[in-house]
Amino acid sequence: MTTKPLVVITGASSGIGAATARAFSAAGHPLLLIARRLEPMQELGLPETELATADVNDTPAVAAAIARAEERFGPVDLLINNAGLMALSSVAEQDPALVQEQFDVNCVALMKNSQLVLRGMQERKHGTIVNIGSIAGKQLYADHTVYNGTKYAVHAMTEGLRRENAAHNVRVLLVAPGMVDTGLLGNTGEGDVLDGYLDYKKSIGGGLVPDDIARAILTAYQLPQHISFREIVVAPTSQDA
Fold it and tell me: For residue 22, which of 223, 209, 224, 232 has the smallest C-alpha distance?
């Protein structure tokens, strides 16, 4: 039975979420993994792990999963808000439902799920929240307007949360990846926008792999509680924008 504290990861069924789950499990942490798809989380085969099939926007379901995991493993010491949605398009062509969904997943759920753990962390004067932003929260890219907006918001909200919680000794930090080889493009339809993105990705060697981002998150978390990386931008050396 591990004595290390509980780590909660959203969007844990693939990509950065799954890689981060493997990294923290290897470091000896019990986990609560949250995603809409159960089978990929089961296939990770990680010990000391609770699995929850829930949409991150279903706050009662997320809260129930956290309560179940805390009963088994103790209080959440790290929440990684990783679940995200990217649908690239010009604004004129963007499906209005995808506009709403990107803000709901990338911004609203991130805040609501942070609320579920913040009070306990404040009372214990210990804990960390890692929000997965993006280099698109710093740079504007063609056909990224809505996605850019969500990630700029994540960056602003992370800094606001950090300031609110500094006096409570709770760390809040942003990890902003550049181009990473994940399945995030699944909501971008075929056509020139997708082709252009993939061509650039190929030109810089395919981007980072999810394990690269997981390593950065683990490194930041393993610092003593009184030390906080406020922001980590991690991108391929070959990425110029």
Answer: 209
Q: Sort 239 into a burial class: Cβ within 10 Å, 0-12 / 13-18 / 19+.
A: middle
- The active-site residue out of 141, 147, 197, 200 is 147
Q: How far is CA 117 from CA 127, 191, 198, in A?
A: 9, 41, 37
pLDDT in tens, 49-88: 999 999 999 999 999 999 999 999 999 999 999 999 999 8
> For residue 6, which of 46, 83, 66 has the smallest C-alpha distance?
66
Alpha-carbon distances, residue 203 vs 32, 78, 92, 152, 206 (angstroms): 37, 36, 28, 26, 7
Q: How far apart are CA 178 and CA 236, in angstroms?
A: 7
pLDDT per position as a tens digit, 125-171:
999 999 999 999 999 988 999 999 999 999 999 999 999 999 999 99
Q: What residues contact residue 39 under an 8 Å CB cut-off, 6+ apart?
A: none
**Residue 147 is among the residues annotated as catalytic for this protein:** yes
pTM: 0.93
What would the two tokens of residue 51 be?
């699995």
214 φ, ψ (degrees, to nearest 5): -60, -40
Calpha distance 205→116 (Å, rounded): 39
